[in-house]
């Protein structure tokens, strides 16, 4: 059986978790509490994802992730 090439996921597991909570209308504080990380870390994950996508805001990032099939509502 041949190994099939698997493209590297766009988001890290943690970035995906942050955005899955973000689309549920959770605040930075809510997300931090739920994932047991600091609010600054949540903001860093959001910022890193926005940079990867080349977008300027959280809502744009969500739209782009949905378009790419990286996120579902």
Radius of gyration: 13 Å
Strand content: under 5%
* Low-pLDDT stretches: none
Q: Please, how many helices? A: 4
Distance from first to last alpha carbon: 35 Å
Which bin fits the share of residues in helices? Answer: 55-70%
Could you state the order of secondary-structure elements as H and E? Answer: HHHH
Largest sheet: none
> How confident overall, as mean pLDDT?
93
**Given the C-alpha coordinates, what overall shape results?**
globular
**Tally of DSSP β-strands:** 0
Structural class by SSE content: mainly alpha
Describe the structure.
- This protein is mostly helical.
- The chain contains 4 helices and no strands.
- The chain is globular and about 40 Å long.
- It starts with 12 loop residues before the first helix and ends in a 6-residue tail after the last helix.
